[in-house]
Amino acid sequence: MNTKMKLFSYNTVDTPIHQLSGLTKLICFLFLSFAVMYSYDIRVILLIMAFSIYILRVSRVQYSQIRTMVLYVMVFVLTNLVITFLFSPEMGVELYGTRHVITKLVGNISLTWEQVLYQVTKFFKYISVIPLGMIFLLTTNPSEFASSLNGIRVNYKAAFAVSLTLRYFPDIQREYHDISQAQQARGLDLSHKAKFMDRFKNALLIIIPLIFSSLDRIELISNAMDLRGFGKSKTRTWYTCKALNRADYVALILSALIFAGSLAVSAFINHSRFYNPFL
Amino acid sequence: MEKQAIIEFKNFSFQYYSQSAPTLHDINLTIYKGEKVLIVGPSGSGKSTLGHCINGLIPFAYKGEISGSLAIKGQDTREKSIFELSKIVGTVLQDSDGQFVGLTAGEDIAFALENDNVPHDAMQSRVKQVAEMVEMDQLLNSSPFELSGGQKQRTSLAGVMIDNVEILLFDEPLANLDPATGKTAIEIIDNIHKDSDKTVVIIEHRLEDVLHREVSRVIVLNDGHIVADMDVHELVCSNILTETGIREPLYITALKYAGVEVTCDMHPGYIETLEIGSAKGTVKSWFKAIPPETPHSENPCVLQMEAVSFSYDGARPILQDIHFDLHEGEMISLVGKNGAGKSTLSKLLCGFEKVDKGVIRYRGEDIKDKTIKERAEIIGLVMQNPNQMISKALIYDEVALGLRLRGVSEEEIKPRVEKVLKICGLAPFIDWPIAALSYGQKKRVTIASILVLDPKILILDEPTAGQDYRHYTDIMEFLVELNRLGVTIILITHDMHLMLEYTPRAIVLSGGHMIADTAASFILTNQEVIEKANLKETSLYHLAELAGIPDGTHFVQGFIDYERRLKNR
């Protein structure tokens, strides 16, 4: 099958990252994300980002696997950047308490170094979460995914729903593809030539059949699960649940240290969440 | 030993809350421990509902009004939960892909144990043990996308056997399987039944295929009533099958055509036990009297494939050197096991994918440069599941869609839609919502929505999948009519009856190669092709052997010709 269908799917490559338990990876992901999210210190953020890019390399994730996701996030982050500036161009000044104007723009709006630092920091915060998320998604065996969520006390029904989504996602994708082709044969134009409203309406022509054929599927799955005792007791065990080993503990400790480090930088060096070079 | 009742329906009736009439009426049925019972009936006869009652989906998941009683192992099912019942009754549903809830075979097998909080290590060893019973132990780490239909079904079977259930319930186990895999499935079920003391209940409408192995008795359901509960031999001698719209075994049909009176002492239930003794001569002379079909003068060629090859990734070829001619007004089958390249071939024809090598010609002209949209006016594709195509609420809008997307004016659309709906027998429903239609009618709507573009060639993917004999006949006779109106038809199918009865010619694909392009009668009697394409020898061939007719292929062809003339096709 073409690579498009493998968009989010887990690929089996044997790397140290793949060997970690899903639970470990989830906890590390949370630690590192919180570390980045809490701190507004661009030095800390860039360090963690460099670290996560290194891990991304180690786990041998191909760029082609994450390209679409990266593009979407970039669009989102850039839009966010522009909108933040339009609505609160003085945010940086407020936060850092000083005002160094670079250049005057329209009216009384001007670009300040404070705003630049604030927005650049924010930009990297978002950007640095991507490799982390990608590592977690692409190196975790989807079946372990559910058991690891359950491992951090997420209700097992919710955790299993995630696993089911992963199970049926490729099916739905394939079905979408088939339906789309059949509808194109009927004359549906999905190319960029069509007007935006038309494209929206045209997308409905694919989505409606997709929903109807998925409804049948849902009924079947829920029957199959009922018949095999899903939801019978308050807990459940997992067939694919790796016991934690030394590498897992090392990874857990390392990410906990990074998290603690990020907090420590804020608490003892910056004395706030923000790194302020303007003082 | 005293027979011990394990499933007991007493004056049992059931009505879904959403329905205005009961689906099951006054069912009295006892199934004994260790029996292997086959429940047959046309669509809507209530056979699936009966299955749902046994496994507890009724009244747990589907609500309704129950009267009378149903006891499993002496206990009324209403007093038990679906979970308790699932420890006694293991159900293998018909869609082996959809019910595959795990991400790998191992996980799917372990599912019931996981829900029972079985510790990790115990689970691993138990899964291995059960997987061995169905020969899936080497494939525990495979994802459902890597498994064949038969392997998925075996996984489901292991998934219910892991609970050590006493009753195994199979809901249409043969749907979605190719003939050879279906045959193996019946053998596996039979072996498990023989090797254990489990009670087996099979719900199917494909009688002949289940009767590949012995069953204790057959229950026939029709309109929610039990119309027969008898021995197989008795059943095939009676008129019950034809009256309820269930296809009788093909060799029985042939015997009846030959004028042989089928009686119980011929043991006609299974082809293996059939003894035709004195009737041999009757069959022989019937066969000899069938006049050979006069060969048609060939129509001009409408479609040509010349040395077509294709691969998705440039490395692994999906189709190699495919070449065939399709003549105007032909109706042919395209067969082969899953992954042989059938759907890819249809995608190439519709222009969804581009050929790597070779040429596809329509009336002599290379169609390489035509867009998907333009190709649709030559070659239309009808997908298997009508739900995959229907995107409008009203029949008129659905059929008009293709024209509207082409910018045809409403004044022109109206007569064209009306004409097509008339051809498809849907004219009375023109203003109806699609939701109010039956499956077969929806199928017609999808065919109409393609026909409205006036394609010269129609490709249908499994047009009769999951349909009982009556609906199958309806759909196929409709296609025959279309064919008479001049539409050339390609049917992608697993159904050997369909091949035999409706398409004089079949193209067989195997591993991306075309291994046969010949008469259906030849394909279904040729051991090599049968094996490569996962088909099954037709029972007519065995009948020829029994009757001492050396040329089985000829006999099968004779049967086809006779039937065609009989039905005036």
The percent of residues in helical segments of chain B reads 25-40%
How many DSSP helices of chain A?
A: 10
C-alpha Rg of chain A (nearest Å): 23 Å
Number of strands of chain B: 20
CATH class of the largest domain in chain B: Alpha Beta
Multimer state = heterodimer
Backbone shape of chain A = flat
The fraction of residues assigned to DSSP E strands of chain B is 15-25%
Instruction: Label the CATH architecture of the largest domain in chain B.
Output: 3-Layer(aba) Sandwich
What is the residue-averaged pLDDT of chain A?
86
The main sheet of chain B orders its strands as 6-7-8-3-9-10
Strand order of the largest sheet of chain A: 1-2
Give the class of chain A from helix and strand content and strand pairing.
mainly alpha
H/E element order of chain A: HHHHHEEHHHHH
Q: Would you identify the CATH H-level superfamily of the largest domain in chain B?
A: P-loop containing nucleotide triphosphate hydrolases
Number of domains of chain B: 3
Description:
The complex is a heterodimer of chains A (279) and B (569). Chain A has 279 residues and is mainly alpha-helical. Chain A has 2 domains: 13-141 and 244-279, no CATH class; 142-239. Chain A has helices spanning 16-19, 22-38, 42-58, 63-87, 91-96, 113-139, 142-151, 156-185, 196-226, 246-270; strands at residues 101-104, 110-112. Chain A has a two-stranded antiparallel sheet with strand order 1-2. In chain A, helix 3 packs parallel to helix 6 (113-139) and helix 7 (142-151) packs antiparallel against helix 8 (156-185). Chain A is flat. In chain B, a hairpin with a 2-residue loop joins strand 4 (64-72) and strand 5 (75-76). A 6-stranded mixed β-sheet of chain B has the order 6-7-8-3-9-10, sandwiched between helices. Helices cover 37% and strands 22% of the residues of chain B. Chain B is an alpha/beta fold and 569 residues long. The chains are: A mainly alpha (279), B alpha/beta (569). The interface between A and B is large, with 53 and 69 residues.
